[in-house]
Amino acid sequence: RRRSHNKEATTAVIDAPLFQPKKKSKSIAASQDTVKEEFSSSLENNGLVELSEYERTRLENIKRNEEYLSSLGLEDTKAELESIVAREHKATSRGASKKVKLTQQELTSRRSGRVTVEKLKAEIQDLVEKGGDADLIQQREIEMQELIAKRYDSSYAAILDSSMQSGAIKVVSDEPIMLKGWINKGEVIEDQEEKEMEFFKIISTFKSPKKKNVVTSVNEYQEMVRRLTLKEADVAKLTPSRITAVFLHPSTSKVLVAAGDKNGFAGLWNVDNFQDGNDGVLPYHLHNSNITRFNCFEEDSSRMYSASYDGTIRCLDVQVHAFLLAFVAPETRQDDNRGLYTSDCFFLDSHGSFGTASSCLVGKSDGSVGLVDLRASASSYQWDHPLQASKINSIQQHPTSSHLIVSAGSGKAGSICIHDVRKAGKSWKPLVEINEHSKSINAAVVSEDGHFCVSVSLDNTVRTWTNFTDPSVKPSCEVMRRDNHTGRWLCTFKPTFDPKFPSCFALGCMQKQRVVELFHIEQSPSKSAPSTRLLRQIGSDSLQSVCSRNAFHPHLNVIAGGNSSGRVHLFR
User: Fold this and answer.
1) How many angstroms separate the CA atoms of 44 and 498, rounded?
2) What kind and span of H or E run contains 148?
3) What is the Cα–Cα distance from 57 to 552, expressed in whole angstroms?
4) pLDDT of amino acid 338
């Protein structure tokens, strides 16, 4: 009886784990089965238990299955697949090997002293009006001048001035920048002129299409942008550092892109040219500082213009085969205007009530604006008047009411201002002034049809305005909350409207999954405020960074986005 009782207990010990319902990993189950088999063999050899035929067959099947799975090499395949999934996407090298190596300059931390300076100004004015102590007034004036000097020392203008004095950046030269002989890895390319011929032939022979490609419905536009994709071959490095301006040439035969960075370097890209050794990318050093805008007048397509913080406007003249110096701001050559620079530039069309097809508006860091006629004078403004209380971040001629100027200022003192050029003068007051943003405004851009104005601010809002030009009516506004804090190393977000469908605009995005967002604005008859909705997020495995600056092609279904490493992504 004792032997029979021990046999039953031993059999229970063996059978219990074999039919355990809990799920375990393959490695644990295999080790358990091996232990069972060894334990069962030991018990059987010692005569303690005799396995049934079913148990023997089961153990043999388990052993045979393990040997078969091991022979297939599934573990090695699993490890290889996991390594492929975990591998990071490598940025495209198109145009990257051809960049010019630069010595990077460290920017000092910027600390604004505007509030303290304003307080001192108010205190000095109060002391003067009340007939206060002359020594105290003089002391406060000295303190104010020290604060102004300290603010300048930490500003962008001081870095630019010191770089020019040390020779790190050359002073603006009147000499043309020839196209041939650009530098590539320290060597001058002898046959550069031949490689440029195709690019400039497209520019010189381009004629604006008589009929523009206009989309009539949001459904048609949504279907059009749904087809936009980004391929790895459509990503190229055009500039050495952070891109501040992107431009798509209106040519319909070939896709031509221009991009400029914060150090004044520019890249011209013939997208579909893979034949030459530079992947269609032509780099140049056009300016001494931040490039703010590119433009090509459709009336004269053989010329392409670029504007910069250094107060210069250069013109790519295909006939002369050089970048000519078209304009130099007079304040950049005067010692008493140290620290003043041009912050934005807008080229006027030929149908405006002021200026010509070769004119542009130049916004400056002191809040003033000047009109430049590129055919009349290369070193003076047609007129120059104050516009904002702080630096002008964006300036634009109203697309339909061409006598109006729309500007956006930086800082807490910045606002959206609508000015009438017909009332320009020293005491030029805005027709409409909007002060709804609580922080600096990156840009305020009006749609091509003139119905909407979109403003993007560091207060993490995007505001859409209607009825913003009539002083007798309060502007209607819709507020959209989003992350606009790009930080120190990314360019600020600026909206860009699509000329093919004026109620849609593109904007960069800070979310982890890198995309470019397209928005559509609707105006309901029953509501005074417009409605802005997200139309599509365009992304790809080849898009691994934030595209802060974007541009639409005026005729083709193409969008170009520039990032902070100098790369341009082409969605088409």
Assistant:
1) 83
2) helix 134-153
3) 72
4) 55
CB contact at 8 A, 308 and 284: no
Indicate the helix (H) or strand (E) that contains 8: helix 2-18
> Which strands sit side by side in the sheet containing 504-508, from one edge to the other?
496-497, 504-508, 515-522, 531-539
Residues of the chain with pLDDT under 50: 1-24, 98-115, 156, 160, 163-164, 166-172, 180-190, 336
Closest CA to 208 of 350, 91, 40, 43: 350
Q: How far is CA 20 from CA 15, 39, 49, 167, 505, in A?
A: 9, 17, 21, 80, 62
Scan for tokens 């630096």, then name that residue: 391
What amino acid occupies position 395?
Answer: I
Residues 6+ apart with CB under 8 A from 355: 348, 361, 371, 373, 382
Report d(CA 386, CA 367) in Å as an integer.
6
Per-residue pLDDT, 334 = 59
Burial 155-187 (b: 16+ CB within 10 A, else e): bbbbbbbebbeeeebeebeeeebebeebeeeee
- Estimate the crossing angle of helix 26-45 against helix 2-18, to 10 degrees: 160
Chain centroid to CA 335: 34
Residues 6+ apart with CB under 8 A from 61: none
Can you give the length of the chain in residues? 572
**Dihedral sign of CA atoms 231, 237, 238, 242 in order:** positive
Q: What is the pTM of this model?
A: 0.70
pLDDT of 36 reads: 59
> CA of 221: how far to CAs of 365, 449, 500, 503, 505, in Å?
38, 16, 9, 10, 12
Is residue 521 classed as helix, strand or coil in its secondary structure?
A: strand
CB 442 within 8 A of CB 392: no
* Whole-angstrom distance, CA of residue 114 vs CA of residue 116: 6
Cα(304)–Cα(51) distance, integer angstroms = 91
Strand 312-317 to 303-308 pairing: antiparallel
pLDDT at 497: 96
